[in-house]
Amino acid sequence: MDFLANLAMGFSVALTPFNLLMATCGVVLGILIGALPGVGPPSGVALLLPLTFGMDPTSGIIMLAALYAGTMYGGTITSVLINTPGESASVVTCIDGYQMALQGRAGAALGIAAFGSFIAGTFGVVLLMLVSPALARWSLAFGPPETFALMLLGLTTVTLLTGESAVKGYISMVLGLMIAMVGFDIISGDARYALGVPELMDGIDFLPVAIGLFGLGEVLAGAEEARLGAMVPGRFGFRDVMPSANDWLRSRWAIVRGTILGFFIGVLPGAGPTISTFFSYAVEKRVSRRPEEFGHGAIEGVAGPESANNAAATGAMVPMLTLGIPGSATTAIMLGGLMMWGLRPGPLLFEKNPQFVWGLIASQYIANVMLLVLSTAFIPLFVRALRVPFGILMPIIIIFCVTGAYSLKNSVFDVGQMLVFGVLGYAMKKLGYSPAALTLALVLGPLAERALRQSLIISDSGIAIFFLRPISAVLVVAALAAVAVPALRAVRNARRRRALALKA
Amino acid sequence: MSARGGLAVRGADRIAGAGLLALGVAFSAGALRYYDYWGPNGPGPAFLPFWLGLIMAVLAALLLVKAIRAADPGEDWLPRGDALRRLVLVLGATIALVALLEVVGMIVGTVLFLVGVIRFLDRHPWPLTIAVALAVAGVNFLVFTYWLHVPLPVGVLGF
Fold first, then answer.
1. Which residues pair with A192 in a beta bridge?
2. Which sequence spans correspond to the domains of chain A?
3. What is the pLDDT of residue A341?
4. CA distance, residue A336 to nearest chain B CA (Å)
5. Domain limits of chain B?
6. pTM
7. Is A177 on the interface with B (CB under 8 A)?
8. With contacts defined as CB-CB under 8 Å, which chain B residues touch A219?
9. Which pLDDT belongs to residue B1?
10. Distance between CA A135 and CA B104 in Å, rounded?
11. How far A459 CA lies from chain B's nearest CA (Å)?
12. Amino acid A98: pLDDT
């Protein structure tokens, strides 16, 4: 079978010593980055991207994908032991995970999360492997209108789901698109909005922006806090971490549901691991026969969401690889990386770069096994890393931000740009804007503009073309709905407030 | 609670709203002024920027109106006291590092930056501070210069 031959070829790529080393580095760094509050998966990918430029793209993506999987687990450690989420996909784990730790069951909480992550991650790769080639084949028929409609949907849903207020979310997105307009226009050759600055004529690279927003910006936000909360002590020997028969019995369906839910939420453009954990927690609470235990250390409340986020992290790769549309900030940065490596993500990737795609898929199986081993046997080591004071880690991360921004083009201008976006990222985070929407818009902007202009060139009915073709019509209507829902909600709230004010 | 000007979210929203409104209008106007809205066979380089500027202006106006009519000044978004001191110290040191990068070079810059921040943020002991600074500068140099062949910024002293 064609497909088994591809997978075998993938393993032959993934099992080379260097790629195995990259997967290991990715998982270890991922767990550490995930565990540290403040720096999450997008920061990790942005900071490590510069290291991959000298490598073969396949090794690069293997490291980044392993890192993404590792962060999903790393955040759990902090959630369970300190009651502070290490990253946003582990927020709900605080609820029951920390309660379990207080009851002396920190090992069990981390253990079930590790096994749930392994099962979900592995099953996610199986689905990725089965779904992606079919999706890629289907999307080969996409013309510019469908591509544009899909990007529009990705942009509006990310905005809808990440900003604290809809208006601020959309402002972030439009700002990202405006930044994407800077530099040479591919069709006319105009150096748009360069203001006579030569460095701006080639456009604003997304890497310094991403490192600024997610690296420096997050560190500055974390700089204010002197230290982490107190850590609940726990025992992490083999027996403490292995889930008991009763734990398995209670968690098995939570893991299954979390996996399926997580994967499909991950595939949706715009909804990533974080959203999947909230869904999973809500579902588990609803179907449980002991809903009263939720919030007091119910193991299902850890097992479900922790499985969901790993499945979603894998699912999020599907639209990135097959359609070239990232569903989250992390995959947006990965997509930017793919383009920097000279690959063209999208339907043709599977045909033109089978080594890359299948190497990535095979390495994900390996990364999940590594993650299971590391996350059950080496917990004390990662817990130790959490004890490193933030006042030492923070400046070190800033040094990586500076070096990373510089390394792209050996340009101090880029470092300055990173600094500006770092300050902007800090302000955006504090004021409720969405750095994720800005980044996604910056990456998709040039592609979306080209698709839009091509669509209007081939159209003889103006913008009606987007509604006349069935696939693009469905996607555009969905995108408009994502804009309309918060707008309608705002109008309704305003009316209600006015009614209340009249009564008073 | 208290809120002076831009320190509270409402004030910041007003400033951001006004600034972004101006940016959106300027962006649209600039597009029409300098580039073609419609090219020989379709939308030109000004087409999307014009609409983006307009959408930004509308969104910014919404933000501005909401912030002007809001009765509650909102929470402070900038920290105070010790948290502010920490933020200013870290940000100031970072700005200094970037500004002096081509004068002192990456290696010396890294050591000075790390020593300064680690020592003065939390008063970590000198030996630890210096050890961390030297180790990070060394690893960074080895990884980028030898492994990745990316030359790091060199200072006036030649390293």
1. A183
2. 2-503
3. 87
4. 20
5. 5-69, 81-147
6. 0.89
7. yes
8. 90
9. 41
10. 52
11. 9
12. 92
